[in-house]
Amino acid sequence: MTEPFSDQHAAALDAADPLSALRAEFHLPRHGDGEQAYFVGNSLGLQPKGARAMVDEVMDKWARDAVEGHFLDPAPWMPYHELVRNGLAEVVGAEPAEVVAMNSLTANLHLMLVSFYRPTRERPAILMEAGAFPSDRHALESQVRFHGFDPGTDLIELEPDEPDGTFSMEAIERAIATHGKRLALVLWPGVQYRTGQAFDLEAITRLGHAAGAVVGFDLAHAAGNLPLQLHAHGPDFAVWCHYKYMNSGPGAVGGCFVHARHARTTRPRFAGWWGHDQASRFRMGPEFAPTPGADGWQLSNPQILSLAPLRASLELFARAGGMGALRARSVRLTGYLEALIRERLADTLQVVTPREPERRGAQLSLRVAGGRERGRALFEHLARHGVLGDWREPDVIRISPAPLYNSHADILRFARAVDAWRGGGA
Ligand SMILES: *Cc1c(COP(=O)(O)O)cnc(C)c1O
Q: Which atom of ligand 1 is nearest to the CA of 254?
C-alpha cells in the first residue's frame, strides 16, 4: 500500500476504476494552465461535452424548419420530453409514466402541494425539517397560509437531534408518532443540502403512510447522487432539479415524480393544456382530461432548449452503467476524501456529514476549526489554488466529489492545499 497522500496512490485508484474515463466527457473549468479541482457539482454540475450538440440541434431546426420543427425529425419538439423519460425513470428508480421533466423544482413542488397537501381541521399539519432549503420552507409556509391555516401551529419544523445538525431516524419516527393524527403531509429531503445527510426514504415513507399522511420528497441533492427506488419505496410524489448532480445546466428544467397509484387521481390540480390527454389535446376543447401519470401535471409545452442538455447528461448516466455503478465509485471517492481528512487534517476540518456511507451521498460538509474568519481564509486559499468548494455560513465548506467527473487526484489536490495552508501558520 502506498501512502494515501501520494500522487502514485491517487493515480493508482483512478487507473483501477473504468468509470474514471467519463471525466473526459465533461468540460472542466480552467485554472491557470491546468484544470480546476471542481467540487461544486452539488450546486451546478459540469457541462457534458455532448450538451452543445443537443442545443445546436434545436437551434438549427428552429432556423431551418421553424414551426414544422414540432413534427420533423430528428427529435421533433412535440414529443420531445419523451426523449428523457426512460433515462430519468432509471436514475430515480421509477416507472416511465411516473416521471416527467417540466418547469422548475419549486414550481413543481407547488403543483404537487396543490394536489397532495389537502389540509382539514383535524389534519392540517406538515412535518418538515428545521433548517430546510429556504425555497422549500417558503413553498410550504405559503401553502399552509393559502389554505387558511396557521404556520405557527401547522408547519411543524423538526429540529436536528444530533450534535452536528443531523437527524437520527428515531427522532423522525418520534415526530411522526407525536404529530401523526394531525399530519396531512410529511415533506423531507433525500439529502440535506447543508449537512449532506442522506435519509432512509423507504422508512420515512412507511412511517408517514402508517400515520395517515401523504409523503413527498425533495430530491434536489439526491437525484443523480444516490440510487433511488421511488416506485418501490412508494412516496406519493417527489420533485428535483437537473442542474446539480444531473449536469443539465443553469436553470435546467426540473423533475417530478407522481407514484403510479395516483396516475388517474381525481384530486384537485392546477391544470394546463400540456397536461391534457395527448390524444385529444389539439381538439382544443374546453374540458380538461388529464393524461394519466406524471404527465398530467404538465402546464405548458416543454422548454425545449432547457431540456436539450438533459439528453446529453442522461446518456452519460447510462454509459456509467446506472446509479448502482456510479454510487459504488462515489462511495470510494468520498471515502478517500474522508480518509485524507482524518489522517492529516482533523485539527482543521471537522466532518459534519455522517460517517456511515449509507447516511450520506457524495458531499462532505466540513466545519473549519477556529470559526468564520479562519474558514473564509481557507476557502479563499483553496480558490486561489484552483480548488473550488462552496461556502455555507458561518463556517462550513462543502466538498462534493461528483462520481461522473471528479477524480482521486482532485481529492488529493484539495487535501494537499488544506495541508499547505494549515502548515503555513494561518
Ligand atoms: C437547489 C435546491 C432548490 C432550488 O430550487 P429551484 O426551484 O430549482 O430554484 C430547492 N430546494 C432544495 C432542497 C435545493 O437543494
A: 8
Mean pLDDT of the 313-317 span: 98
CA atoms within 13 A on the CB side of 180: 14
**Mean per-residue pLDDT for 259-276?**
96
Q: Interior CA angle at 38 toward 29 and 221, to 5°? A: 120
User: 54-319 is classed in which CATH architecture?
Assistant: 3-Layer(aba) Sandwich (3.40)
Ligand 1 atom showing the smallest separation from residue 43 Cα: 1
Indicate the top mutation candidate among 109, 142, 188, 193 to test ligand 1's pocket, ranked by most ligand atoms within 8 A of CB: 193
Q: In the chain, which residues fall in CATH 3.90.1150.10?
A: 3-35+321-422
Using alpha carbons, select from 101, 97, 400 the residue that is nearest to residue 226: 400
CATH architecture of structural domain 3-35+321-422 = Alpha-Beta Complex (3.90)
Lowest mean pLDDT among 1-10, 58-67, 168-177, 295-304: 1-10
Domain with CATH 3.40.640.10 in the chain: 54-319
- CA 214–ligand 1 middle distance (angstroms): 21
Q: Supply the residue whose CA is at minimum distance from atom 15 of ligand 1.
A: 220
Read off the pLDDT band of 424 (50, 70, 90). Answer: low
CA of 190 to the centre of ligand 1 (A): 12
The pLDDT of residue 425: 44
Q: Nine-digit cell at 302?
A: 416543454
- pLDDT for 370-422, tens place per residue? 999 999 999 999 999 999 999 999 999 999 999 999 999 999 999 999 999 99
CA of 244 to the centre of ligand 1 (A): 9
Measured from the CB, is residue 218 less than 6 Å from ligand 1?
yes
What mean pLDDT is predicted for residues 136-149? 98
Of the chain, the end-to-end C-alpha distance in Å amounts to 32
Rounded mean pLDDT of the chain?
A: 96
Residue 241 Cβ contacting ligand 1 at under 6 Å: yes
When pLDDT is averaged across residues 69-75 and rounded to a whole number, the result is 95
Ligand 1 contact, 196 CB (< 6 A): no
